Every structure is written in C-alpha cells, then in structure tokens.
Amino acid sequence: MANPSLLILAGDGIGPEVMAEVKKIIHWMGARRGVTFDVTEDLVGGCAYDKHGVPLHDDTMAKAQEVDAVLLGAVGGPKYDTLDFSVKPERGLLRLRKEMDLFSNLRPAQCFDALADFSSLKKDVVAGLDIVIVRELTSGVYFGEPRGIFTEGNERVGINTQRYTESEIARVARSAFELARKRANKVCSMEKANVMESGILWRDVVQEIHDKEYPDVQLSHMYADNGAMQLVRWPKQFDVIVTDNLFGDVLSDCAAMLTGSLGMLPSASLGAPMANGRPKALYEPVHGSAPDIAGQGKANPIACILSFAMALRYSFDMGEDATRVEKAVEQVLADGLRTADLMGPEGGTPISTTQMGDAIVAALDKSL
Ligand code: IPM
Ligand code: MG
Fold first, then answer.
1. Measured between alpha carbons, how far is 250 from 161 in angstroms, rounded to an integer?
2. Could you give phi then psi for residue 220, rounded to 5 degrees?
3. Whole-angstrom distance between the N-terminal and C-terminal Cα of the chain?
4. What is the pLDDT of residue 277?
5. Which candidate, 299, 366, 309, 298, places its Cα nearest to that of 332?
6. Prior bond to 146 cis, omega within 30?
7. Pairing relation of β-strands 186-191 and 240-243?
C-alpha cells in the first residue's frame, strides 16, 4: 500500500517555526511507529505572494486536492496589510477551504489540568473543560454574493451576504451529531433566529436532521449572543456546539481563550469522503501567524502538534498514536515545561519552541 501523503504549508510568521517541531513528530512516527509519510512542502499566504504574486498558486491548490491531508501553519503579517484584498494572505487559506469544500471545522477547546490556573476565568469554571465547536466553513457571510464596496449616490456602501442552503446546513449538522455520538451525545446549535431569516432556516434544518436521523442525541438551540455569554459564564454546560461560519469564527476564539492560551488549540477542517473513504482534510492551529514574536523561538508549537494528532485520528486511522501525542503534550505540561505564552503572573523561565518540540518527542519515546 502507498505511504500516507501529507502536504505541508507552513506559511508565514511563526508558521515555519511551529511546523519544524511537527516535522520531528512526523519523523518519529516513521522511525518508531513504522508509519512513513510522503511529505511535500509548498507555500501559502504572504510567502506565496512574494514568490508568485498570489497567496496560493494553482499548482499548490492541485496538490492539496490530491494528498490524504494538508497541514497548515499560519498566514499573514503586517508586511501584507496594504495588499489588494484579492491577494491578501488570508485569501489563500479561504481558497483552500472553499475549493476542497471543507465544510466542517472542528475546533476543540480543552483545558489541560496543568494550565487550569492560567485561564482568565476561575479555575472551577474551566478545569476539565472539553468542548468542540463545529463551525460551518465554506458558506455564509464569508462567501455569499452579492459582496463588495459599491457607490450609492454620493457615498460608498459595503455589502456582504449571509446565505445558507438547506443542504449546507444539513451536512454540517450531521457532522456535529456524528461527533456528539462519540462524546457526551449533546449538541447546542447557535444562530440568531430572532433577527435573521438564515438563522430561522438554520434552526429548522438542524431540528429536522435531528428528529429524522439523530433523535438519540440531546439537542438544544441558543441565540449566538447568549451562547457567547454562556461560554464565559459556565462553559462546561456544552459538549458540541454547531454554528455558522462567522459566529463560529468569533465563538471559537472566545472558547479558545477559556483554556488559557490560543497557542494550545488545534483544528481540523473536514470535507466529503474521498475515494479511499477518508474525508478531504486540512489541519491547522487556531492561532495566527503572530508576527510580533516570529523568528525568535518563542512560539508555542503545541497547537500545531495537536493539529497533526487530529490528522492521525481523522485522516489516518491512527487514533492510538493520536492519543499518544496528546498524552505526551499533557506530560510535558505536567512536568512544568512552558513556552513564553504560558508564563503566568508568577513568572518563571520559558523554554524555546525547539525545546518544547524536543521535550514532546522525548515524552513520546518514553511512551513506548
Ligand atoms: C480563523 C481565522 C480566519 C477566518 C482568517 C485568517 C481568514 O480567523 O481561521 O479563525 O476568519 O476564518
Ligand atoms: Mg478566527
């Protein structure tokens, strides 16, 4: 059988630094677990713009469609802020999501015991937190037409369109219900049905799919603004949250921060099954390119490493090794190792990006 294939798009800012640590884990899987990945590397974001004048070259797009999974670091940076909208680094990422049709974005927010004190919320509110936001990723206001900046009379008007079809809502709802069945069997769907027609349709369709196909799953609905409030008030009331593209963007940053650091959280963006039965997939940390600390060895590689763990689980049927990586991360945190972003008010000496990667590899060695 052919080796599993991976396309690595490290991107900009801290992307390449954190991805270098993931490569150590990929290498470890080959050396110690006998699973060799065929790895190709390419450019996305600002670095692709620098070389090709576009944030994602067509050849890269074609490669992404062929591999078993794509691993992405981060895109963007101040250098590219003044670029035309159509070639901004983020457009590269959005093109990947759209053309690979990665409609289901899984964003877990899990609080590691060793870091429970680190959240800006009280420890008992976050300790043991384990929720997943399922964000619709290929439609909604991110992609709806009409869009643009137009002139009306003597002023400009900016327009974006929130648009959802029934089938778009149904497929992401199914992925949330499927996921819930493997967890605490609870889904909360969030929209603004009180002010948006697309929200009314969202609520209806999620309820229909539930009643017909997943009546065993506990389903509730919440307005997204209340959802944001509840996330901060008592996040442990949730198991799986399913929501649209824009609310999912905002709510997932909020959920991420509950756990103490954006530097810890992975994500998986999944599409329809390919010929081999595995979903089309892209894995990336929730954090951005952090240009302020890029190139200084300060970045936390854990989110990117945990994204690779998600790839092992969802793309490569290597759930046991995924757990092994997650346990290794837990172990180094329990041992007190901290990158700069995990320094509490009490201070201490942070370790570097590479030291964190090496420590996780050492913990993996011990796990055998
Ligand atoms: C995210 C990011 C992206 C988004 C940006 C970089 C386009 O914020 O993945 O959450 O808005 O989806
Ligand atoms: Mg975001």
1. 17
2. -135, 160
3. 25
4. 87
5. 366
6. yes
7. parallel
Whether 244 sits among the annotated catalytic residues: the reply is no
Residue 346 has pLDDT above 80, yes or no: no
User: What pLDDT band is residue 256 in, cutting at 50, 70 and 90?
Assistant: confident
Nearest CA to ligand 1 atom 2: 249
Which of 205, 226, 259 finishes a domain?
259
Number of domains in the chain: 2
Note whether residue 115 is domain-resident.
Answer: no
Query: Is-contact 339 325, C-beta < 8 A?
Result: no
89 and 137 in one domain? no
> Which pLDDT tens digit goes with each residue over 11-50?
999 999 999 999 999 999 999 999 999 999 999 999 999 9
> By alpha-carbon position, which residue is closest to atom 5 of ligand 1?
90
Q: How many whole angstroms from 300 Cα to the centroid of ligand 2?
A: 18
**Confidence class for position 354, pLDDT limits 50, 70, 90:** very high
**Do 290 and 357 reside in the same domain of the chain?**
yes
**Range of the structural domain that residue 336 is part of:** 1-107+262-368
Region label for 347, one of left (φ > 0), alpha (ψ between -120 and 50) or beta (otherwise): left
Segment 7-11 shows an average pLDDT of: 98
